[in-house]
Design brief:
Hypothetical protein af1432, two-stranded antiparallel sheet, 19 helices, HD_GYP_dom
Length: 414
């Protein structure tokens, strides 16, 4: 099985932008060196716009195709370490330093493009050495330097204003920081781009016309094997679980449990791995949920619960972007559906729910009931299965799938 790397990267960038939008809470997060206030910026499509700017600058510099591919991928993923740091307790230097370190660590095991980790690590370094890791000049990876200026241009961009109205302000700011934050050759490349109205019109319309990025992006012909995609899924399960204070290793455990049930049913190995990946990614939509709601220790209001419910919708949106995995996307995003049609988000009924989706729902409920949370101790097997048996009696979850789980873990409730 082959999975398009390009589609995986684009899906991940959507998840990262959703996460940054949901994490900014009106706080005064300021990067001191450049004096840009992140809290006034809307982060939807931040990765896409940063990527578009970086590609145009890279092309203007006539960099080799392999470097342009690296710029494309790393600019889409440059904030992968920021998913847990856009919140009220993290300011300027802490945020900049920590998310660079975390982003680098997360991407060390990323399949292909072995320099991705270093590019992300140094994407906040300044040419004069005043960045968080104190790297300077040509010691900073060239791709990181391109992302640095592109990220700042995107942060200066105000999507509520016509692009040409703000062109002069942005260009002037870039000129003022030449040879301090980025080198003059990259500044000049941006200035050449900025003279073309199409650059600004594309930047303005990218959020509603994603094909703009498709038209300029370098061709990425690399495909991931299922096992390489599994590595990506592990990276994101870690990000998901770290965002939610209540679920230390929930996604990881669901992935293992779904795999074990699949092995018990003698599914072939490829399908077992797919089930594991679905478990690892089933809550990826939680990246779109505001932290203050996700981590609330008291009871949720109806409005807050409705926001929480949207996470499975976003899981489907993100995973459907990877067109090569429709089965994994369905299994992952159906875990809150119920046999009687009262589940969410699609209100599917029994005849619309596959065995795999039913197993995923069982694994999710079992794991949620048995694991410790900050506000409660995990239930015993006896109490857990009393609750789940009652749910099966009410035609909410599948008796047969519940039986598969009990057989897999060796539980006998007689």
């Amino acid at each position: 099985m082959e999975i398009s790397l390009n589609k995986v990267i684009r899906a991940i960038s959507i998840a990262l932008d959703l996460s940054q939008m949901s994490s900014v809470d009106g706080t005064n997060i300021i990067e001191e060196v450049t004096n840009i206030n992140y809290s006034k910026h809307k982060f939807m499509n931040h990765s896409l716009r940063t990527c578009y700017i970086a590609i145009e600058i890279g092309k203007e510099l006539n960099i080799p195709q392999d470097k342009l591919q690296a710029v494309y991928i790393s600019s889409l993923l440059h904030d992968i370490g920021a998913t847990n740091f856009f919140n009220v307790s993290h300011y300027s230097n802490d945020f900049i330093y920590e998310h660079s370190i975390i982003g680098s660590s997360l991407t060390k095991e990323f399949p292909l493009f072995n320099n991705l980790s270093d590019i992300i690590l140094y994407h906040h370094e300044n040419y004069d050495g005043s960045g968080p890791l104190k790297l300077s000049g040509e010691n900073i990876p060239f791709e990181s330097q391109i992302i640095r200026i592109s990220d700042l241009i995107e942060l200066l961009f105000n999507e509520t204003q016509p692009s040409l109205v703000q062109k002069d302000r942005i260009v002037q700011w870039i000129k003022e920081n030449n040879n301090r934050v980025y080198p003059s050759n990259i500044t000049e490349a941006f200035l050449r781009c900025s003279r073309k109205d199409i650059f600004w019109f594309n930047l303005e319309n990218l959020n509603s016309m994603n094909f703009i990025l498709d038209n300029v992006a370098p061709k990425i012909n690399h495909n991931l094997t299922l096992y390489e995609f599994e590595k990506v899924a592990y990276i994101f399960s870690d990000i998901i679980d770290k965002k939610d204070d209540h679920t230390a290793s929930h996604s990881l455990n669901i992935g293992e449990l779904a795999y074990n049930v699949s092995k018990h049913l003698k599914y072939d190995e490829e399908k077992c791995i797919k089930m594991k990946i679905a478990g690892l990614l089933h809550d990826i939509g939680k990246l779109a949920i505001p932290i203050k709601i996700l981590n609330k220790n008291s009871g949720l209001t109806n409005d807050e619960f409705n926001i929480i419910k949207s996470h499975v919708y976003y899981s489907k949106i993100i995973l459907d972007r990877i067109e090569d995995i429709p089965d994994i996307s369905d299994w992952a995003s159906n875990h809150h559906e119920k046999l009687d049609g009262t589940g969410y988000p699609r209100g599917l009924k029994s005849h619309e729910l596959s065995e795999e989706s039913r197993i995923m729902a069982i694994c999710d409920i079992y794991q949620a009931l048995t694991e410790d949370r900050p506000y409660k101790k995990g239930f015993t097997h006896e109490k857990t299965f009393r609750i789940m048996n009652d749910m099966a009696d009410k035609y909410l979850i599948c008796y047969k799938a519940l039986g598969y789980l009990k057989e897999t873990i060796g539980y006998n409730d007689l």
